[in-house]
Amino acid sequence: MGIISFAAFTLLVAVISYLSTRKTNENSSDGYFLGGRSLTGPVIAGSLLLTNLSTEQIVGMNGIAFSEGILIMAYEVVAAIAMIFTAMVLLPRYLKGGIATIPQFLERRYGKSTRTLVTILFLFGYAISMLPTVLYSGALAINTMFDLPEMMGLGDKSALWVTVWGIGIIGSIYAIFGGLKAVAVSDSINAVGLIIGGSLIPIFGLMYIGDGNVFQGMDILTTNLPEKFSAIGSKTSSVPFWTLFTGMLIVNFYYWGTNQAIIQRALGAKNLVEGQKGLSLAAFVKILGPFIVVLPGIIAFQIFNGDLPNADEAYPMVVKKVLPVSLIGFFAAVLFGAILSSFNSALNSSVTLFGLDVYKEYINKDANEKQVVRAGKTFGFFLALLSMGIAPLLYGVEGGVFNYLQELNGSYSVPILAIILIGYLTKRVPKIAANISIVFGLFVYLISLYVIKPIMVSSALEKAQASGITDAVALDLVKVEAFPHFLHLMGLIFLIIVILMLIIGKLKPRTEDYVQVYTEQVDITPWKYMKPVGFGICAIVISIYIYFT
Questions:
Q1: Are 301 and 225 within 8 A, CB to CB?
Q2: Is 189:330 a contact under the CB 8 Å cutoff?
Q3: What pLDDT was estimated at residue 136?
Q4: What's the CATH code of the domain at 327?
Q5: What is the extent of the structural domain holding 181?
Q6: Model pLDDT for residues 56-101, shown as the tens digit of each residue
Q7: CA-to-CA distance for 537 and 158, rounded, in angstroms?
Q8: What does the mean pLDDT of the chain come to?
Q9: How many domains is the chain partitioned into structurally?
């Protein structure tokens, strides 16, 4: 029964997506890459949420909530502030310039070499972190919920390879042959299903704990595990409190304001009003995110007495435990849709970046739009194969799949965010400042985190053990104090890059001020309720933190 409902719902979404995109000209750049600049607020909101809310979020964050508690909600709640900033500050500028990709703006502001560097960074990030992580976490969830390794007669790792490639092939068909509108429509349908289905998991979980009573279950949970409901992270946690004001802001401002895979949905808006409505609606729903991506992990800790061999299995295990059998197939289909959403959205953005920013610029400058789209699709095919080959290798990665993704993303998110903000907020900072900052940010971050940190941590542990310290908790504290948290490192490098760019801009400024030209491709009249809605959402975020403190 579960397999039948899974297949039926998945097929229904595919048919609706196909019917919705038949009239879109997929052979034009705007038609294929931006859905014909026709996306409305609700469609943008649904696509934004589903692109973000995939299994690397649901599985990964619930895994950390299982181990550490509600403090991991920072990635969800602080995101609302970043989305409002994007709607009020960045999106009007993006739509004014009529850009299809972030690197297009960077070429206009700095030059072609900057555009190329950032395009390479985006593609590098999608290839080794976002795409493989989505495939791995999705396959892990599906395998656990349906006991696929046992059904296929394979070991966990072997079954993972099979599921990863199955998801990857289906996602590639959506992204490569459907274009942005197919991705966005399927996202919107699955968004409704995921919000409904995702909300059922904590409800059924609390009913399981409370013997049929949700409120009694919540009371038992907060009474037995009060430490899991503190939003203030310690030095040894995944999100120490002070990182909320350093790297956490950078992570979210980059992700929601400059990440091509995300912002491409808003770039396809029919006008600024619809884009701002979509971002605002998504920001409000994002505040409710911890109910889906954090609470089930804490419920799993209560149900399984904190004893699971792999914390990343907390979510699929609690789904199997509390969800009625009749609903497992539907929920697995919705989860499958979320997996496809993040995968095909990142893949579609990669196709866009390669087609417009690499093929058209460097390989075939005289290419017509049909040739650009075809080249992008070909690149997407090979990128999909690469990500499917990397994904199963993440099995059992130290610290969990979510932390792996966030740490690696810092290598390119910091310099990209810095040069975009400086590009819009200043007029004379030159190309050389941006290019130096990209290279500086990338190498300093990677060397600091993956070369200097292991050396310093190893040295600190040796000294601690030589002095007689053997307690595991004390040794964990030694590790943390030996080197700054990666979120603090991101904040520090961001500050250095901004100062560096301003100094270069002062010493060697552009000969002329940068002036953004209004292309008049869409109406950029702002939504009249944007400011009150935006400030209201920010006030809710602050209230949530006050409550859980």
A1: yes
A2: no
A3: 87
A4: 1.20.1730.10
A5: 2-547
A6: 788 889 999 999 999 999 999 999 999 999 999 999 999 998 887 7
A7: 45
A8: 84
A9: 1
